């Protein structure tokens, strides 16, 4: 067996496991919260390790990770109705204040860069991932351990996977015109269009066959098609943003935690812009 074949098998096996874990997490509210709190922590930890390799930058990896996970959990309990006060965010605010004040005493070479990269991690990773709680529990009728219809947040990932699959297949067969050669030479306009078409078809199918449960009432097929367009556009931008980030710091993969798939940022880059965009889209249409 050649290295290329072994890599393909490894990638396929872990890709299937990844999809299965994500799908299973949306069967219960506590499963989803637990998995995505872990994803938030691992992704921020990975991010902090990458930026700490930049000359003059030194961020507190542990506290940044704890703060990000806490923010995710705070949004979750707030959306579940377990607390009803903004006071749940006070510990997070204190963490952020500490991260700023600590630079007065650490004597880092470039404290402003350290501040900037610290807050970028929170805004780029913790904030977007925490918004999945709004998609899952925005209607406020889900218990922590309950079996919830969380088709809406799950559909974001299904549409992202459809976009990636369609883009890869179409781009491999027909790709001629580069989409963004300066940042991602492998992506083509043909692939992006193919991925977009497949995602919109999948969105229409979800709207027709599956969108009649909690959190999706009032969403007709046209709303779902619009959601598909939003996921395609912002998911593609999310992928390109992460590519720009990696090029800026000079790495090929963000990590090696997922064999054949790179790091956590590599797997969730598209969702970091797609999830906030979907929340804005649905709130704009007054779906909640």
From TrEMBL:
PANTHER family: PHOSPHATIDATE CYTIDYLYLTRANSFERASE (PTHR46382:SF1). It comes from the Bacteria. It is found in: Cell membrane. This is Phosphatidate cytidylyltransferase. PROSITE patterns: CDS. The keyword Magnesium does not apply. It holds the Pfam family CTP_transf_1. One of its GO terms (biological process) is CDP-diacylglycerol biosynthetic process. Keywords: Cell membrane, Lipid biosynthesis, Lipid metabolism, Membrane, Nucleotidyltransferase, Phospholipid biosynthesis, Phospholipid metabolism, Transferase, Transmembrane, Transmembrane helix. It comes from Prevotella amnii DNF00058.
